Amino acid sequence: MPDLLLELFSEEIPARMQAKAADDLRRMVTDKLVAEGLVYEGAKAFVTPRRLALTVHGIPARQPDLKDERKGPKVGAPDAAVQGFLKAAGLKSLEEAKIQRDPKKGDFYVALIEKPGRPAIDVLAEFLPVIVRTFPWPKQMRWGERSAKPGALTWVRPLHSIIATFGMETEEPDIVRFDVAGIEAGQTTRGHRFMAPDEFSVRRFEDYEAKLHDAKVVLDPQRRKDIILADAKELAFAQGYELVEDQVLLDEVSGLVEWPVVLMGSFDKEFLSIPGEVIRATIRNNQKCFVVNDPKTGKLANKFILVANIEASDGGKAIVAGNERVIRARLADAKFFYETDLKTKLEDRLPKFDQIVFHEKLGTQAERIARIEWLASKIAPLVGADVAKAKRAARLCKADLLTEVVGEFPELQGLMGKYYAQAAGEDASVAAACEEHYKPQGPNDRVPSDPVSVAVALADKIDTLVGFWAIDEKPTGSKDPYALRRAALGVIRLVLENNLRLGLELIFVGAHGFLSYGLILRERQNFAAALEEAGKRISIVKPIAEAYEAGYEEGAKERLRAKAAADIPNLLSFFADRLKVQLREQGARHDLVDAVFALEGQDDLLMVVRRVEALGKFLDTDDGKNLLAGTKRASNILSIEEKKDKRSFDGAPDASLYKLDEEKALAAAINDVKREASAAVANEDFAAAMSAMAKLRPAVDAFFEKVKVNDDDAKIRENRLKLLNEIRAATRTVADFSKIQD
């Protein structure tokens, strides 16, 4: 079957747009082929800085003939309905339709529509120009004399030529005839802008790719990446260095060149006094170059690797020299910024935060830092951190946002705080927390283990979550502008990977109360005094009812208590959802998380996970499966009868009404299981709790086999329904079995 070759040749396509453009081209063309009945065998898209290409093989030479039956109105329907049917079906009169008889619904008209398939090349010529014109570039431009005329083409960069060939592998392909804004499709392209700029003709993909390579163009982006990475490693190794790999930079650089040539340059050793991350950011961001390590010291060497787009006649000396000049100037700026920053201590920068708004409803950065400092001091004892160090780290952790280096390279925030704290003689844990309080920032990011870092990281993320919950700025659907889902996952990972025992509800209560109290009082008095007063009155170790007895005005007190009563359960539910995501990635069942979180007071994430693990193992056994089935049966019967009687069957059963041995045995088993399971749960031995639950299974099985629940005697029936409710209550010692899927 024939193959399609399509190339859109233009000026330089921005590297950040290339991968998506290749995917979009493949998707748009193949979707249209399938919609037209042209089912292909395979397709692959390619992109370089100057061309977007697609090959689709195994396309049928012709569309299949279409035969369709279109049902019309009933015989005898109004004329308007008949005329509408004729027009839609393309019939001249009812004589061209047939009548289909239906003894139940009556006779109705049917139109037989036969549409012969067209040659695939004609179909391509029809929709390819539409795809070119409607291509979804993030940004587009007009150019040339025709740019102002109606129907002028907009494209990411000026489009110069189009290749569109279609044909069998063994035959000379045909050109798909169409034009876009005066640019006619053909079979001619150009090679490398400088090394092979002349036009040449191609026929099909294999010919196209080979001739491009001869014309100094590597078409496949992945092959360009492989060449760059292999050559860079080899060049660094030959000079006694190790390449510092950077996948994001590699992706970008491969989109800047069509014929990659790897070269090495150097910079003055004096710049090595700057932190290595600053050197790397400077060279990476400004010149798109890689840095190398000296394996003897494990630190950066005064060398860099660049990727040129040409085989220069001088071996690349002029290219290297030009990059060295620019990098020297950029590193001189970075060194000046760094040395200037060192002259001002982090703490001396803090007053500026009074004028910087964090969020219009949550106050300034200074207020946020004060909240983090207070919250870190309360969390520190719970995670084994020194309180004074945690407060100090929380106070300083945001200060590097006001430094020159972070202003130039925002991605270095936190890291530079560590360096500046070290330079000022701060404690090692305080300095480390300045960097690590942002972590983890994603599923693959490192989780801090130093207690001071953990305390500040938790305080930072919890303040963010509680704050935005308090002002009703929660994530909705796919929208999460404040990265609250990431913050919650960060809290979860900090807790689980450090095996921390934390009651989140009380921490949320304290954070919510401190935030609300400070925001109310700042309008009536000096903010520092307001926060000092709030710190004395709010405690995370008080229950929710007491946490808001902090001396508020009467009206405000009630409003805040009600707001917290709504916000905090909602936030805990949000954490349950995030924990489900986390555990699902590790292979756990989300319904088990629901079953555990459904119990009251389940805000200790570590215990939730351990309970989920024990529950999962239990349900994998025959005892677990059968007990789940029995519990579900009891719940279903109760639900039906409660709905019928419009009442619940709470309360202890009357032992004197037990008529059968199976009733008595079940009641005894429930009492034993409740006692054993409760004791095991209290000791946090969830495996033992599950073993206790397993003892309930024989009694439940026997009860359902021998006992008629809906007895004719109303009192007996009610008593047996109460006994079923006891089954449900007993299992809730470990989890809400009604949340577990079969």
UniProtKB/TrEMBL annotation:
<dbReference type="Pfam" id="PF02092">
    <property type="entry name" value="tRNA_synt_2f"/>
</dbReference>
<dbReference type="GO" id="GO:0005829">
    <property type="term" value="C:cytosol"/>
</dbReference>
<keyword id="KW-0067">ATP-binding</keyword>
<dbReference type="GO" id="GO:0005524">
    <property type="term" value="F:ATP binding"/>
</dbReference>
<dbReference type="GO" id="GO:0006426">
    <property type="term" value="P:glycyl-tRNA aminoacylation"/>
</dbReference>
<keyword id="KW-0030">Aminoacyl-tRNA synthetase</keyword>
<dbReference type="GO" id="GO:0006420">
    <property type="term" value="P:arginyl-tRNA aminoacylation"/>
</dbReference>
<dbReference type="Pfam" id="PF05746">
    <property type="entry name" value="DALR_1"/>
</dbReference>
<comment type="similarity">
    <text>Belongs to the class-II aminoacyl-tRNA synthetase family.</text>
</comment>
<dbReference type="InterPro" id="IPR006194">
    <property type="entry name" value="Gly-tRNA-synth_heterodimer"/>
</dbReference>
<dbReference type="GO" id="GO:0004820">
    <property type="term" value="F:glycine-tRNA ligase activity"/>
</dbReference>
<keyword id="KW-0648">Protein biosynthesis</keyword>
<dbReference type="InterPro" id="IPR015944">
    <property type="entry name" value="Gly-tRNA-synth_bsu"/>
</dbReference>
<keyword id="KW-0436">Ligase</keyword>
<comment type="subunit">
    <text>Tetramer of two alpha and two beta subunits.</text>
</comment>
<keyword id="KW-0547">Nucleotide-binding</keyword>
<dbReference type="GO" id="GO:0004814">
    <property type="term" value="F:arginine-tRNA ligase activity"/>
</dbReference>
<keyword id="KW-0963">Cytoplasm</keyword>
<feature type="domain" description="DALR anticodon binding">
    <location>
        <begin position="637"/>
        <end position="729"/>
    </location>
</feature>
<protein>
    <recommendedName>
        <fullName>Glycine--tRNA ligase beta subunit</fullName>
        <ecNumber>6.1.1.14</ecNumber>
    </recommendedName>
</protein>
<dbReference type="InterPro" id="IPR008909">
    <property type="entry name" value="DALR_anticod-bd"/>
</dbReference>
